[in-house]
Prior knowledge:
single chain; alpha/beta; Rossmann fold; five-stranded parallel beta sheet; 5 strands; globular
Amino acid sequence: MEFWDCLNETLRPQETEKTTVLDLFAGAGGLSLGFEAAGFKTIGYEMDRAACETWNKNLSGICHEAKLSPGFEYPQADIVIGGPPCQPFSVWGYQKGAADGRNGFPIFVDAIRQLQPSLFLFENVRGLLYANKGYFEIVINELRKSVVIQKV
């Protein structure tokens, strides 16, 4: 075994948690990497083939190459994470926001409605808080309406 292969195998995080993490718009796996390092099983969804291949080469979970849409059927997961495409909101772009076909927030909100995870996390760009601040508030309100709070 080559030194790097040995090192990679030795440092590979071990799955210690029973919780499954679903990573939407997974990219090359940056968000999933942190959850795997903490011992979680991860499942990713990414439409870019090269990013998906990178994810699968470097992480323990599996990333599926798929273009997501509202109504997509996901496996059960207790945690949903993701980075909806930032181009619609970036200050370096046209900032079309909700009118941009790459807007992934409706897909993310739909996944939260379907799965009712105990935790969700999304990341995006700072530009979402400028020209599209009103849309950001709509997304937050939709997420609030989507979560069923269970009392114990």
